[in-house]
């Protein structure tokens, strides 16, 4: 058993054999110019800034032997898994499925849908394509975790208040103990990242814990 003493609101305990790192949506579509994130009117450099930190976390997880899960927000080429409401909303410079500089926006298999090179999944790691903001909705994630007796999830990725928070809430309702790494998550709206960190750990870890990468690595 390991303890993250510096976690908030109180120490987080976990067993490496039952722990997975879940890296949410570190895709070119959100992190590089020309993808979905920029199409929504955002400054993607805010997200690119955490790539080196997530890379250190990923190496740590691999060295510790944790299960590693990567997710990608993505849709089928025929958009059959993209609700019209999702496609219609946003501040569309371009919409999901439209042609962009990195291929069709947020469509599975297109260059822009890939995880950034620095965080590329290694052989044997789980990659979950998800049509929603949460990684449990309409995916096999719950089954993959159950098969491996995973009880604790350590989260990183983007964006904090959208796909990371949604997934963490889904996981919390399913009974997982969830820790979000503060400097390995980012938002296009930094105040929303900070608010999310505060709200997940409020009321006695109502959704879960938060900790810096340094305090995780001390554990
Ligand atoms: N727009 C935004 O902040 N996020 C998303 O659309 N998806 C994820 O968070 N991955």
TrEMBL record:
UniProt lineage: Bacteria, Pseudomonadati, Pseudomonadota, Betaproteobacteria, Burkholderiales
InterPro entries: Isochorismatase-like_dom, Isochorismatase-like_hydrls, Isochorismatase-like_sf
Domain of life: Bacteria
GO molecular function: hydrolase activity
Residues in coiled coil: none
Record keywords, A-Z: Hydrolase
Gene3D superfamilies referenced in this protein's UniProt entry, alphabetically: Isochorismatase-like
Keyword check for Hydrolase: yes
Name this polypeptide is given: Cysteine hydrolase
Domain Isochorismatase-like: 19-208
Pfam family membership, one: Isochorismatase
């Amino acid at each position: 058993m390991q303890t993250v003493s510096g976690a908030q609101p109180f120490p987080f305990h976990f067993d490496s054999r039952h722990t997975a790192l879940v890296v949410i949506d570190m895709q070119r579509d959100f992190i590089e110019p020309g993808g979905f994130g920029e199409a929504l009117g955002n400054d993607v450099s805010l997200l690119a800034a955490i790539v080196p930190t997530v890379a250190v976390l990923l190496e740590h997880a691999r060295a510790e032997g944790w299960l590693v899960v990567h997710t990608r927000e993505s849709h089928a080429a025929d958009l059959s898994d993209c609700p019209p409401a999702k496609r219609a909303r946003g501040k569309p410079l371009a919409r999901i499925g439209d042609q962009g500089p990195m291929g069709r926006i947020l469509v599975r298999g297109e260059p822009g849908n890939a995880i950034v090179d620095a965080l590329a999944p290694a052989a044997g790691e789980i990659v979950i394509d998800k049509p929603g903001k949460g990684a449990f909705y309409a995916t096999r994630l719950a089954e993959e975790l159950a098969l491996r007796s995973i009880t604790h999830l350590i989260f990183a990725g983007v964006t904090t208040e959208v796909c990371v928070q949604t997934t963490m809430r889904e996981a919390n309702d399913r009974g997982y103990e969830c820790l979000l790494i503060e400097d390995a998550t980012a938002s296009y709206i930094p105040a929303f990242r900070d608010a999310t960190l505060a709200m997940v750990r409020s009321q006695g870890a109502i959704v879960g814990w938060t900790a810096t990468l340094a305090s995780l690595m001390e554990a």
